Amino acid sequence: MTPQDLVMRMLPPFGGWLALAALALPGGSPLRGAVVTVFLAAGPGAALVGVCGPALRARSARGPVESRSPGFARRSDLLEQLMLVVFLSVGAVMTVATVLIATHTFSAQRVLLALTLLTTLAAFCPRLRVSPPPKPAKTRKGSAL
Prior knowledge:
Helices cover about 65% and strands about 0% of the residues. By secondary structure, the protein is an all-alpha fold.
C-alpha cells in the first residue's frame, strides 16, 4: 500500500472524527453544520465504496453504440461511484438512526458516533478482490447442451 492509498483510505474516518470534534462548536455555527453535513452525506459511503472499489473498477461501463466518446467509460464510472457514495451514506444514516430510535436511545451525537465508528471500521477492512471471469461450461460430444 502506497502512502497515497493510505491517505485516501483514512480521509472518511478523519472526516467523521472532525465532525465529532465540531460538536464542541456552538449549536448554530455554520462551520459545525457544514462539517457534519458533508460527513453524513459522503463519509460512510466513501468508506464502504472504498472497500468494494477494486471489484467495481474491474468491469467498466459500456456506452451506446452510436456514441463513440472515448471518455464515456471513465465519466460513467466516476458518476456511478459518486452516486454510490451518496446513497450508501444516506442509507447508513437512516439505518443507524432507525436502530437508535427503535432502542429509544436516539440522539444526534450517538448517530454521528456510530457512523464514525462504522466508517473507521470500513476504512480498515481489506479491499475486495476482483473475481476471475467465469469459465464457459464444457459440453460433452453428443450431449444436448
